[in-house]
Amino acid sequence: MASAQTESAAASAVAFVGRRNELAQLREEAGRARVLAVAGRPGSGRTELALRLAQEPDVTAERPVHYLSLAAPDPARRLLDLLGLPRPGGVLTADEAEQAAGEAIRVHLAERPVVLILDDAPAENAAAAVQALLPTHPDALTVAVTHGPLTGVPDVRPCVLGGLDYTAARELLAGLAGDTRVVVDPVAAQGLAEAVACHVGALRLVGGWLAARPRASVSDALRALRAVPAVPHPAAPPAPEAAQNLVGLTIDGKPVPPMPSYPPPGAAPSPPPPPRGAQRSDDPLRRAFDLVHQELGAGPRQLLRFATLVPGGVLDERGAAALVGCPTAAAGTLLTTLAAQQLLREEGDGRYRLPRSLTPVLSALCEATDKPAAVELARARWLERQVRLLTSCLVRLAPEQAPPDPEVPPAALRFGTRAEAFAWLDAALPELLPAVADAEAAGGLDGLVTRLATALVRVLPVWGEATGRPVTVELYALHGTVQRVARRSGQPRREAAALVNLGDLHAGAGEHARALERYRGALAPARAAEDHVAVGRILEATAGAYRASGDLVRAADFYGRALTLRRNRRERADEARLLARLAAVHSAQGRHADALREYRAAVALHRKLGDEAGAVGAILGAARVQESSGGVEAALRTQREALESARTLGPRLEALVLLRLADTLERAGDQAGARVQREQAAALRGE
């Protein structure tokens, strides 16, 4: 999953203008500090400045540069992938895997100097989020993009971004709207920059507004912007509780004056005052957004609002068409139009990303404008579209594992080649995995959540095998989601199946105690649903876990229960398999007579079913029991009986029986006879 590289490429694609003083300050501080904090309001160009700094040869000093966004989930595991380190082994929850990945990163980065760009640090607990991934090597450099100071992070040097200078603001406008209109009207261009406080994001939006209107002048843009009501900045965080407790109190009848606020030690200095024409309390980004947004059509506005429903705000033609319910070609036109007006950032390969600086206002608009039913319908259409795409992708990558699709998907939902399908899957997984958790939390779409999780469970092992990365953590989270949704919606059969899948993951990792917990938890919902097939499967899996953990008494007990259930349901093939497994447990306990009885019953049942190969396997099991009990001659006779049956089934099975016979002869001291059997087996295999 290449989310970090994709975001880095998208951010670096934005033209960088101005910031000479800030760049010089950061370049100078990079030689003295281990952490640089690029602080400022959203949309002020913090990411572009951090990426531009990482391109300076004297800053990188031949150290590898890695970009990581902290806005997406599981930053430690994504950084682990960026560094090319192996993922944590075992069956872990997402939190456990994140903690293990953080430990591995700390060990790795303590030995190697890197330049690490940590973008989108959260507004709350930014210092903790940065410090969790901070390299400890003395020559490492971390550039953190934050909203405010990183209080508590040692050796940090802040750089607070305000607006651009006027020259850079005009250059940015000219790059988007064209040189001519800016050059012929420099006064209006300066007034426009002043009106938005030279804010980078606001200037981009206004430049996109001009680019979409070739006949409009800069003066027209300035008049239109001034007609838009100013919006104050979002409310500041509340005062500390200790200070709030004094408000309204009096001492000797006099009110207590408010407690003065001082910046914490090491805090970033206050940003420079904005240019004239914009008040500090105004939000220039919101004002520019309102200018562009109010003149959009209903379709583009709806697509922008619904883009906030997609994790990361990432859209392509297929997803956009599903969100607004339009043809794919029309959705592609909408995306191109919005990208031209700087409302979306183009990432390449037909993918667009909603700028994070616009996400809060669009989320508020969606909540205020769209009815809950319309929002749920848009999310349902998008989830359904992803399920269909995952199925089409699996048809290309692993047709034998794809479920039968009752209808052929349209051309827009099909992939022409395996490479195309894998490229889409690799790019889409960073959004699809969080989408399951988001839809589960939203509620109301439990059926679609289950279908999406099931489709991901099918396709993730294929992706993991192709990339060489374990996907156990992702599979564990998806099965857990299915189990919780099934319990919430009253589907005990599905809940039991999800618990069995979780137990199988633990058993596959050798965690048999945790597997037993899951299997025991699955018995109650399976019995409540009267799903006898699932009950038999659970009993058998429980017996296998007990056997693997060395508790042979309980293993025999549960194999016996499963055998009784299969026998009562007349499931003869399953009965024969369980007879052989029960016999193996009896043999391990030293109960050879019981083991021989079960093996002989399995041989008879296999032959009754016409499964001669299964009968040969059971005969060989009986021979092993006879040899273990000291009856070597009886074991050799039994193996020769198996050899006679195997000769009618093909050379492969005959060679296997010959090798077993050779092993027995060798243990009995007949080296010459063992050599003859091995030569015959080699001849059958063509060696």
Would you kindly provide a written description of the structure presented here, covering whatever features stand out?
With 687 residues, this protein is mainly alpha-helical. It is 62% helix and 6% strand. The protein is built from 32 helices and ten strands. It has a five-stranded parallel sheet, sandwiched between helices. It has a three-stranded antiparallel sheet with strand order 8-10-9. A two-stranded antiparallel ribbon has the order 6-7. Strand 6 and strand 7 form a beta hairpin. Helix 8 packs parallel to helix 11. The chain is elongated.
Based on the model shown, name its key terms.
single chain, 687 residues, mainly alpha, three-stranded antiparallel beta sheet, 62% helix, 6% strand, elongated, disordered N terminus
Number of helices: 32
Largest sheet: 5 strands, parallel
C-alpha geometry? elongated
Average pLDDT, rounded to a whole number, is 87
**Fraction of residues in helices?**
55-70%
> What topology, given as strand order, has the largest sheet?
2-3-4-1-5
Cα-atom radius of gyration: 33 Å
Structural class: mainly alpha
Give the end-to-end Cα distance, rounded to a whole number of Å: 44 Å
Total strands:
10
Poorly predicted sequence stretches spanning 5 or more consecutive residues: 1-14, 236-252, 256-263, 271-279
Task: Give the strand content.
Answer: 5-15%
